Amino acid sequence: MRYDLAVIGSGGGAFAAAIAARGKGKSVVMIERGVIGGTCVNVGCVPSKTLLAAAEARHVALDQRFPGIATNAGPVDAAALIGGKDALVAGLRAEKYVDLAAEYGWQILHGQARFAEGPVLEVALHHGGRTRIDAEHYLIATGSTPRTDGLDGIDRVDYLTSTTAMEQTELPESLVVVGGGYVGLEQAQLFAHLGVEVSIVGRFAPHTEPELAGLLAGVFGDDGITVITERATEVDTDCAGVVVTTASGRRVTGQRLLLATGRTPVTTGLNLDAVGVKTGVRGEVVVDEHLRTNNPRVWAAGDVTGHPQYVYVAGAHGTLVVDNAFDDAGRTLDYHHLPAVTFTTPSLASAGLTDTHAVEQGYACECRVLPLEYVPRALVNRDTRGAIKLVAEQGTGRLLGAHVLAAGAGDVIATAVYALANRMTVHEMAELWCPYLTMAEGLKLAAQTFTRDVSKLSCCAS
User: Fold this and answer.
1) Which candidate, 52, 192, 381, 398, has a CA 20 to 30 Å from the CA of 15?
2) Distance between CA atoms of 399 and 411, rounded to whole angstroms?
3) CATH among 3.50.50.60, 3.40.190.10, 3.20.20.120, 3.40.50.300 for 2-146+264-327
């Protein structure tokens, strides 16, 4: 079987590449050993965000901030909640993946692919039999999987991961989350808002500006989440469930354990050595700036490369690979204004450099932190938990980074992405039009703090 492009995997990067290749008139085959759609639609972005939205709806009903409004929330029917999530995922998987592949006209083979000298792919089909695929170019887009190593005693515990946690049709009474990155933060608050007693162990929001991380930790405390900013070293079981021991010897107990300590690139069974494709210290497929591996006919995209693990990065990778492979375009990606969002409540978003990273890169910088109490949208929402931090180059005022903790921070940060991409200064940002009573106005107000005292501005005439 001869194709122009053979893609291993069927997630965001794989589909972006296949669509781009079909747009160039190239023949494509895709091999998937699991469920079509990859991480994002099946066990990542889509299911986690719909469950977070559901949990937030319940939390708002229990935490009504507006006088004269009475709300309440009963117990959670976890089976119905998970059933609704599964129905949404199945619908999107069919519409945006399976049906789309048929519409564009490429074949999906269900089986395990492995490289052989050539390079060629040998595929063990799930329904039985084997087939051999020869392609002009190959794309490894196999994604990543939750990391489950690095904690003594983990083999003695029936733990959850971000994947299996979202399959539970019964809620535990208590949960210990190990890991304070974006997955750990989202999952901890998700279960807390569903009524579970939650503890979170590990570095809290380790890649977040400290001013914002401290505010979010306070929010977690208000939500009843116990925050323990120590490294977990060991886990064991007892009569009540699990016991997590920290580096200082503190013991944290819960009915269930959720591991959220990162993700590992998936390369198992691909036989990469046979075609000279190298992997790095974290198991990632080593690629150059054009996403080509050591083998000139083999490329990689998405999480498996060890690059930032966002579906929009994987999608950009997929189209870039196709342009470089078939048109010799020499394209690269610029990550300097790449946005990141953690969908807690309030949500956390960033783009560009942190204060520390700016200094490490040799910038003389100045920063401003604007509490949300100065943002009119937050005042009318009766929720001023959060802040906006801007990092600017000293002298020129060029924006180097923006960091937001606020309701809708992911939408706010999109504005900062455009400012970073166009090398705008905070002074230019301070003078732009911005609609009143939007959270995005907070960016303009934060920019104005470089030259003005915003506490002395009229709330309707910034």
Assistant:
1) 52
2) 18
3) 3.50.50.60
CATH superfamily of 339-453: FAD/NAD-linked reductase, C-terminal dimerisation domain (3.30.390.30)
Give CATH for domain 154-261.
3.50.50.60
pTM for this one? 0.95
Encoded tokens for 449: 């703090």
Provide the b/e sequence for 418-432 (b: ≥16 CB within 10 Å): ebbeeebbbbebbee
Kindly tell me if the per-residue pLDDT of 427 is higher than 80. yes
- The pLDDT of residue 152: 96
Structure confidence by residue, pLDDT tens digits, 348-404: 999 999 999 999 999 999 999 999 999 999 999 999 999 999 999 999 999 999 999
Measured distance CA(180)–CA(91) in Å, rounded: 31
pLDDT tens across 15-37, in order?
Answer: 999 999 999 999 999 999 999 99
Cβ 405 vs Cβ 346: under 8 Å: yes
Q: Is residue 142 very low, low, confident or very high in pLDDT (cuts 50, 70, 90)?
A: very high
